[in-house]
Fold this protein.
Amino acid sequence: MKRVVLVTMASMLVIGLAGTAIAQTEKVGPLTSSFDIWQYYPAHPLGTIRLDTYYGEAVWVHYVSTNRWNMIRKETDDAGIWWVKISLVQNGTAEVWNADKSVRLDTQPFMANEVTMGTVDYIANWYHRNSLLYVEKWSYHWNIDGIYHYKGSCKDGLENRHVEYWVKGYGTEVLFP
């Protein structure tokens, strides 16, 4: 009799768990990859503060660094929807070149930090804030040491973002809101 009761209780437990979704949490990282990109900063109209303002002309910047990121991905109650938190750190160098890339004007350290939290509907090792279904929180700081920074942040959706540039000797320009 005891054996039958135990088997029956075990069967009920297995049947009960089979109908219950268990939220899965995954930690991805730390992951690394190389980062090597040329970015053009065109000449902007007077009164606009961008990197070209500091150098007095349109410039190319060659950024080289290592990307290091971690991610937490957690299933939500909605089928196929995941909550994610991604943290990225970059440390490297920024070589500043004139518009035709014939003269290197400067070399400075640069760094970037980004934290993004929100929901997605597919599995990947990286998510850009614009690829999220909903952005719960985002903070970003791109910095060429002592010369230029770009900062962005938001809570409760990208429509609530704040973005600004700062250039040494020229101050800050707010782009959003």
